[in-house]
Automatic annotation (TrEMBL):
It is a multi-pass membrane protein. It holds the Pfam family V_ATPase_I. The keyword Ligase does not apply. It comes from Deinococcus aerius. This is V-type ATPase 116 kDa subunit.
Length: 684
């Protein structure tokens, strides 16, 4: 749900503005919006205040860069949390650490760069030094080095050199590894440029080493590389140990200074959003219902320095009102799935609970497999455990890293999805396809299915199930989605969901539009609702197009309902002045049909899982000992391959139904508001 907001105005003396802002910052509940007022100064601070802010920002940048160079982590080191030093000591305390940290960082960078160069070029230089045989020290000869991918490329090099230099060159080569061949070319110094031109014509580039190594003879480079490999690791360990010592000794105090400086910069930013006069200031913002007590307490502490006024927000003019979602702990963990857009406009509808309830349910409906559900459950429990330890999770496929907070939410959502998958798997009797059917744990009871769903089994199906011995077991299957006779039932369930969700979405659109007196959108929504009533009635009366003659039976109440629906639709087209609704109503019919994705994707995956199990089971019966082992391995590989192919659809199809088919008609993406960002103290 969306928290109720209050608009507040704060006014006070200019000389007390910093103290008032600090009190508001301590309360941490006020969302500030810029205020323009005639006769008042607005925008960035000027004069001495601007100079003070620049100095604060410079010291803040210096502090943050020092903490970054040291690799300091909050909550570690001596005392873990240090008291804030006196303000007059801040600059000195920062510089005390910044200078040695900068020197250590620079030296670490040099050593690491040399070590990286040695690691990248060490093998090539070793071979080249041996091939050069001291020629690189000659005053009469020039040595050019290069690499190629295969020995055959050397023929083109020799041909180009011979064409330009005749016999005035010597070429030696040797393989460095499977992919690289190193070459050393000796020519008279006067022919160096001709040799380079010949190499270029042969499409071979001269080997250039980075940095200081480029100007050194290859033999000297080899000697330097040996020294780097021998000494640099130890030197790096010493530097990093010294950085850790500095971080442990000074990190907590630097974090305290950083936070105080960041708070001060934030106060100056808040002051710049106020309207300022020579003697006073005025600040405007919004406070959520649950933060009103903290706001009043902060302002009461400023009694005599500032005045404030609180008034309810008008929902009918809420474009600039910030939005704060207030949901229970379960729904909060699903809110990130809607962060692809700004939050809904204040005074409208928060669909977080709809996503929290129906997305995992739809996912479980699609997967509906105990085995795959258990795999998801194991993955979710691992994510939750990792997040509780404060660890992040790099996701290379997406090129991002999930911080512990986000990782917890993902793990929580995945755990809910897995539990629904297991529950639906119990109803469908699926465990990695039909494994538990073959083991007679789950079985088909034709009488039970007929009594529950009114679906009789065909003689062919009964014969097949009898032959495969699937009519006896421990637990009856209640939702046999893979049976041909049951497909129409599953399809109708999905279509029913589509009808409910589309009517729900457009009903919300009509209700919110009427509430905010947006009559154009109201008549549009009312017209679409009427049109969908007409379409659904038409489909039922004509039996999905098989009997159009039934549409002329005016004695059938469904025909009258269809006519009434289309009349309301045409009325909506006229009153909304939206002729494109004639096309839009067809797309809404398509949105209803889109819910059959739950049937198509789920049943297709179940059939593939059954096939994978059948392949493994069939191999298991071929040989006494090797057969079962081979069957399990093949079944596992096929299941893993099919699961990897289908998992994206399992997740994206239910999400699409939420994002597109349901949320689009509600106007969620068209009517958004700014996110609530309270002015609060800085803490990283």
């Amino acid at each position: 749900m969306i928290s109720r907001m209050h608009q507040v105005i704060v006014a006070g003396r200019q000389r007390d503005s910093r103290e008032v802002m600090a009190a508001l910052q301590g309360a941490g509940v006020l969302h500030i919006v810029p205020l323009d007022a005639e006769g008042f100064e607005t925008g960035p601070l000027g004069g001495a205040a601007a100079d003070e802010r620049r100095n604060t920002e410079r010291l803040l940048a210096r502090t943050e860069s020092t903490l970054g160079e040291l690799g300091a982590v909050r909550g570690t080191g001596r005392g873990a949390v240090a008291p804030l030093p006196p303000e007059g000591e801040w600059a000195a305390r920062v510089e005390e650490v910044a200078q040695p940290a900068s020197a250590l960082g620079a030296r670490e960078g040099e050593l690491q760069a040399d070590l990286d160069t040695q690691g990248a070029y060490g093998e090539v230089v070793r071979v080249l030094a041996r091939l050069a045989g001291g020629v690189d020290q000659s005053r009469r000869l020039a040595l050019l080095t290069f690499t190629v991918g295969a020995p055959e490329e050397l023929r083109g090099v020799e041909d180009a050199l011979r064409a330009d230099l005749g016999d005035r060159f010597a070429l030696a080569s040797d393989r460095v590894n499977e992919r690289v061949v190193a070459g050393a070319l000796a020519v008279p110094r006067a022919d160096r440029e001709k040799a380079r031109a010949a190499l270029s014509r042969a499409r071979v580039g001269e080997l250039r080493l980075p940095g200081r190594f480029d100007a050194m003879p290859v033999g000297a480079v080899q000697a330097e590389f040996e020294r780097i490999a021998r000494e640099n690791p130890g030197a790096l360990d010493q530097i990093r140990a010294e950085k850790r010592r500095l971080a442990d000794a000074h990190g907590p105090a630097l974090f305290a200074i950083r936070d105080a400086l960041a708070d001060r910069v934030a106060i100056d930013e808040a002051r710049s959003q106020s309207a300022r006069g020579k003697y006073g200031f005025v600040l405007q913002g919004y406070v959520p219902d649950e933060g009103l007590g903290a706001f009043r307490a902060a302002m009461d502490a400023m009694k005599g320095r500032a005045l404030y006024e609180v008034q309810p927000v008008d929902e009918h003019h809420a474009e600039a009102v910030p939005v704060k979602l207030r949901n229970n702990s379960y729904v909060r963990n699903f809110e990130f799935l809607l962060n692809i857009s700004d939050p809904p406009r204040y005074g409208t509808f928060d669909p977080s609970w709809v996503v929290a309830v129906f997305f995992p349910l739809f996912f479980g409906f699609v997967v509906a497999d105990i085995g795959f559900g258990l795999l998801f459950l194991i993955a979710s429990l691992w994510m939750l455990a990792r997040s509780r330890r404060g660890e992040s999770l790099p996701v290379g496929l997406l090129g991002t890293t999930l911080d512990p907070g986000t990782l917890y939410q993902v793990g929580y959502v995945l755990r809910t999805m897995s539990l629904w998958s297991i529950l639906w798997g119990v109803l469908t009797g699926e465990f990695f396809g039909n494994v538990l059917e073959k083991l007679h744990v789950f079985y088909y009871n034709p009488d039970l299915i007929r009594n529950l769903w009114g679906v009789p089994f065909s003689p062919a199906t009964l014969e097949r199930l009898t032959e495969e011995k699937h009519l006896s077991g421990l637990i009856p299957i209640l939702f046999p989605r893979t049976l041909p006779e049951f497909s129409i039932t599953v399809l109708l369930i999905c279509l029913g969901l589509g009808i409910v969700f589309l009517f729900w979405a457009w009903g919300l659109r009509a209700q919110l539009s009427l509430k905010h007196r947006h009559m154009h959108h109201f008549w549009e929504a009312a017209g679409i609702l009427g049109g969908m009533v007409g379409l659904v009635s038409l489909a039922f009366v004509s039996q999905a197009g098989r009997d159009f003659g039934a549409l002329g039976n005016l004695g059938d109440w469904r025909v009258l309902l269809m006519i009434a629906g289309f009349v309301v639709f045409l009325l909506g087209v006229v009153l909304a002045r939206a002729p494109l609704m004639l096309i839009e109503i067809l797309s809404q019919g398509g949105f209803i049909i889109s819910f059959t994705r739950l049937f198509a994707v789920g049943v297709a995956a179940a059939i593939l899982a059954n096939l994978a199990t059948d392949v493994g089971w069939g191999l298991g019966g071929t040989l006494p000992v090797i057969g079962p082992i081979l069957g399990v391995l093949v079944g596992f590989v096929v299941h893993a391959f099919l699961f990897a192919l289908t998992i994206l659809g399992h997740i994206m199809q239910p999400l699409r139904l939420m994002w597109v088919e349901y949320l689009n008609p509600t106007g969620y993406f068209q009517e958004s508001g700014p996110r609530y960002q309270p002015f609060a103290r800085h803490l990283k």
